[in-house]
Amino acid sequence: MxxxxxxxxxxxxLLFVEPGFGxxxxxxxxxxxxxxxxxxxxxxxxxxxxxxxxxxxxxxxAKLNATVDEVTxxxxxxxxxxKENEGLQTRLNATEMEIDxxxxxxxxxxxxxxxxASLANFGEIYRGPCTDKxxxxxxxFSNTGSGYDPDTGIFTAPVNGLYFLSFSTYGYNTHVMGxxxxxxxxxxxxxxxxxxVDSSDSSSNAVVLQLAAGDKVYMxxxxxxxxxxxxxGHTTFSGFLVFPV
Length: 245
Ligand SMILES: *[C@@H]1O[C@H](CO)[C@@H](O)[C@H](O)[C@H]1NC(C)=O
Ligand SMILES: *[C@@H]1O[C@H](CO)[C@@H](O)[C@H](O)[C@H]1NC(C)=O
Ligand SMILES: *[C@@H]1O[C@H](CO)[C@@H](O)[C@H](O)[C@H]1NC(C)=O
Known about the structure:
Layout: H1 2-17, H2 29-109, E1 114-118, E2 124-127, E3 139-144, E4 148-149, E5 154-156, E6 161-172, E7 179-183, E8 186-190, E9 200-211, E10 216-221, E11 227-230, E12 236-244
Antiparallel strand pairs: 1-3, 1-12, 2-11, 4-5, 5-10, 6-9, 6-12, 7-8, 7-10
Helix pairs in contact: 1-2
Bound molecules: 2-acetamido-2-deoxy-beta-D-glucopyranose (3 copies).
Coiled coil: 33-105
Signal peptide: 1-22
Organism: Cottoperca gobio
């Protein structure tokens, strides 16, 4: 081993420069040498121990480095997941807000409006000919939203929207049988049957009208017209909001 040779040379050097060497011929040289060799052996052992320790500490450092790398990798992964989670949370919040908005606008934009009535709420009614030609439907089946007034026969639109309106009229052959659906005083659609040989007439019609809030729709008799009703509900007027606009 190089180290050993180096130490040996150093010792030999010491040997020859040591003062008074020539005078100590009586000294037991072999004993002296074996002392030095023992010393060198000890030094070598120490050196090996040191090397082992350094190797151990290097191995430890490598392990530590690996652990640090793993922790760094995991931290990056956690950061990524956190970011992803935040993104999802943002989207969830936006979706929840959208749902709330839809709920509110849905409740606002779809008021419940519907009515249905027939002319007679008891006995038998012949209506017309008369000057006040508005038909007042007294037997109210439904009036959600209170748009229909059973005292006047007028439906007043509570909100702007498209409304489905239908009616039927019934009568006998002595007069013109039928009626006109009026919107704010203007006729829209009608039923009509001239006096004729058949004894009774029945007719119906329907329309989808765009009404502004406050618009009034009602049924009017023709001039010299007459309709009939009893609890069989022959002459009727109905309507409902299809959707607001
Ligand atoms: C220390 O490590 C080196 C290089 O891996 C090796 O050559 C040497 O034998 C090791 N020493 C000890 C004492 O384990
Ligand atoms: C440990 O990491 C440090 C810094 O990155 C580096 O200088 C060193 O060489 C590494 N040690 C081992 C044993 O990989
Ligand atoms: C989502 O909403 C919750 C509750 O309103 C709030 O605490 C949180 O900060 C919001 N998150 C995001 C990312 O907007």
